Amino acid sequence: MSDTWKQGTKAVHAGTRRSQYGEVSEAIFLTQGFVYDSAEHAEQRFISSGDDEFIYARYGNPTVKMFEERIAALEGAEDAFATASGMAAVSGALTSMLKAGDHVVSSRALFGSCLYVLEDILTRFGVEVTFVDGTDLAQWEAAIRDDTKAVFFESISNPTLEVIDIKSVAALAHARGALVLIDNVFATPVFSRAFEQGADVVIYSATKHIDGQGRALGGVILGSRDFIRKTVEPYMKHTGGSMSPFTAWIMLKGLETMGLRVRAQAASALAIAKALHGHKAIAQTIYPGLESHPQAELVQKQMGAGGTVLSLDIKGGKDAAFKFLNALQIGVISNNLGDAKTILTHPATTTHQRLPDDQKASLGITAGLVRISIGLEDETDLINDCLQALEAVN
Fold first, then answer.
1. Residue 138 CB coordination number (10 Å)
2. What distance separates the 2 farthest-apart alpha carbons in the chain?
3. What is the pTM assigned to this prediction?
4. Does 2 reside within a domain?
5. Could you point out which of 23, 205, 236, 284 has its C-alpha 20 to 30 Å from the C-alpha of 362?
């Protein structure tokens, strides 16, 4: 791979390894194990495996390795470890590096499952977790201590789309010797500059924009070679959270078109947000690409675009939100995002339903909030569909 390759070229070619047959499309090595030439060869492989040598699919696989190398090249990371799901990546990255007595500082606005890992699982095993308002740098500075092992946050929060200042939070964390771990799903690898801005570890649910077509679960942890191979890999290969070869092949195919898809979706999301902003049935239109967004300047500096997701706080609460959702003709009601299809979610009753009402209120997850992941449909059709559904609310 050339150091001069741009992102689109890396997404198609980085990490490619061909068999003796010279295939164009990446081969799927659907095997759980590998054969050794001799007992001595097996012994040596278990002592030390080379970059193109494999032992067992839970430890590594040629197809999975291609995906890891390609996404690492795309993100600007030294290495990557592919996982069975996005949450396997989040929990694996955190659990592999933490032990009883360690301290973590996290933003409070998180996806429900991320919150569960931090609030319920890690604390159960003796990890101390402090939650802060991720947009308030003073709270980060006050919470990060000399014994803080890591800080964790979503670069864009789910579902209220708060944007965290990566560079500033990273500077505060590094001053105290803490690692910076970022769930970067909403930013996408297309708009991400997280490592350049100070991240130590970047996590993606590959289920979202990387696949982008609703086919498979997957995740990936990116970071330094030492962190990935000495911290993450030993934990993941023994606990069983590795990605399957077939899934890795799907994700490789997804990477080839990801840039085209995500840029088109982001352009449509901006157009739709502008068209709906100020509508009489909407209390608030939340989209990082709008000038009205509280972190609009940071968004342009950090990402250069607002992403593919917007949220609407519809007047009238749950009943009004449900009327809106049920009146739509194009968008589908589900709980994924980053798909070719436009997907709508009512967080208060689905992804964040386990949170107490007061916590939902503090996070801005109102009864009328609807999250919309914009797909690849014609943006005019989507705007008209949203407008007619809003009329049903009235």
1. 10
2. 76
3. 0.95
4. no
5. 205
